[in-house]
Amino acid sequence: MTLTFLWVCILRPTFAQDPCDCFIKGVVLDRESRQPIPGAAVFIKELQKGTVTDASGHYRIEPLCQGTYTLVSRILGYQEVTQSVVLVHTSEQNVLLTEDDIHLQDVNVTAQRANALTSQTISQLEGKALDQTRGQSLGDALRTMTGVTTLQTGSSITKPVIHGMHSNRVLILNNGIRQEGQQWGSEHAPEIDPFVANRLTVIKGAAGVRFGSDAIGGVILVEPAPLPTLKTVHGELNLVGFTNGRQGVASLQTEGGFGKGFGWRVQGTLKRGGNVRTPNYFLDNTGISEQNFSGSLGYRSTRFRSEVYYSRFSTKLGIFSGSHIGSLTDLQTVLDNGEPLIKSGFSYAIRRPNQQIAHDLLKWRTAWKPASGGDLSLTLARQFDDRKEYDLHRPRNDSVAALNRPELRFRLTTYTGDLVFEHKPVANKLTGSLGVSGFYQYNIMNGRPLIPNFRTYNAGLFWIEKLKVNRWEYEAGLRYDYRHMQVFRYEKQVLEKPLFVFQNFSGTLGATYSLSDQWTTRFNAGTSWRAPNVSELFSDGVHHGAAAYELGDRTLQPEVAYNLNLSTEYTGKKVQAEVGFFYNTVRNYIYLKPQAEPILTIRGAFPSFKYTQTDALYAGLDASVQAVLLPKLSGTSKLSLLYVQDLALDQPIVMTPPNRWENGLRYDVGKWNKLQEFFVGIGNLWVARQNRVPENSDFLPPPPAYSLWNLTAGFALPVSAHHQIDVGFTLTNLFNTVYRDYLNRFRYYADDPGRNASVRLKWKF
Length: 765
Fold this sequence. Notes:
By secondary structure, this protein is mainly beta. The chain has 2 domains: 2-96, Carboxypeptidase-like, regulatory domain (Immunoglobulin-like, Sandwich); 121-764, TonB-dependent receptor, beta-barrel domain (Maltoporin, Chain A, Beta Barrel), CATH 2.40.170.20. The protein has a 22-stranded antiparallel beta barrel. Strands 9-14-15-12-13 form a 5-stranded mixed sheet.
């Protein structure tokens, strides 16, 4: 059962503010089928005031004062849900529940959050907050969370960074499937359409026990809503426009049910943008073209569930032509002057160099609840990632076939499988799961040398248990992974087949303590590991998307991480706050180290990097606070501090995120004429200069600190009794500030984008 809350504080459009003119409204739905639940009792615990849902599952409670309340939903046959609700401004939240197993002699009703690891520090993006990121990439959407930033390659390619770690150290699960693309490259962004997600979840810290090796830095869950089964058709249309790049995005999702437990959903997205502009010039050849599609079909009964899902992500990305330079002299000129040699006006054309990526995902998941209790699920999936990279220079043969042939092509095929059994609660206190997982993967590469072909097998076994005792909840888990990788490469025209075998354990031990209904503290100690990937072992050539020459090292050993995380959160009537500390050491840490001199190749001059190994320390703090300052005015503040050190050389490590501090104010007008949920906001992002870098360790010193201002506004426009159009406005880099981000791989060549205004329209039908 899903209980969707929308709590809105409607204030009279006068200067006389009444903090008690608020209401709570929402809809009570079955978690799996999305069918409305009529006759459910919904009430506020503190006031003993409530109502009953109507025939369509809707409810409304009013009038209410601003503050924090406990909202309870209850109906026979379902688990009771208790939810803390803060009446500050317009917000949405989804609570996922399951049907209750009823025993007349012994009824024990409980509610539990569906988090894989409750002692981990978890951030979620959903509802209105997720809507404000629509049209952006997955990395840009996640950047709104505390402790999450992005690694950029130009203006259109972003990868999420959690506590300073990215790429193969951050595991992404797309609809429950481990995302497997060419993620080893800094310019290889996740091949995921964020519009498929109803919620984005970030698990910070080592989470390798449940999700497998590689999850050293954290896990990102891209979660769609459950399929409906009611015999109705509904959906939503999102339209987004951006001024910088003159980009337009359209996404349509439609879903419904056939009755008798069957449901379906189809979704598609189109995106088109041109050259992005910095405050002083356009970035030539930075357009984007994207076409995505997904569809799912499912069946649900009391004890059986099954779903088939397919998605295709297809994009063409222009690579900034100013990053491909013909000689060492010209490269040094760009580094000295700080401006690209190639400047142009606006264009939608995507010329060489560019990337064309297509990613297909086919998933089948089925689950069964035995009569004896528990839940057994099997998930199988196939992914195919086809990446084509075109260099700046055209081939000498001008035939059509030659012009369409990429200089580099990777075709990665991955098969994954997971079998998980969740046992029934023991004494209503102990819950847990046991599972096996594995994947088989092979890559076929064509074109100029960069990485060799390879074939990988991976198998894992895990066990997790959770014990709840009064206000304490404990958890412990253990996992074993085995990886077998066979590489096929030519050395002096002789085929070599080096074999790599890696194996290790991951573990977690954590506790959560609820001091009161307002205070919750979490502690987690975990260990995880990551085998070196084929690019780190064997790269040898121009990585054209990153405009860099990269060299691997076949002697690299697996990384082993030891993570400590401590966080506490407070939810009061007018203040919500959270602070988290992390202390992580990584033995055999692998990173790209800039070399002393650039390198000249037949394809031009490029900065040179080599994969290097050391022992590293990652430590820092994440803090956030949201407070009601006045009846209509609220403020937010987010702080992220990071300290990274090379323990072997006792010096910092290059390319780690600088400290950042984000602040915002929001004024909720409420109802204004025909507009509802009207608000305006202003925010500032300050990013420090990264002063902690080794001397003479990079081709350019870190850029200066920068400060960016942004404006937001939004409202709901009713079009009928049950439908409305949500409208949102955002203006980023308000003052068109000239800046360069330290984590942008193209900061050697050009500034970051300038002012950008966007308009978002969302219509649910």
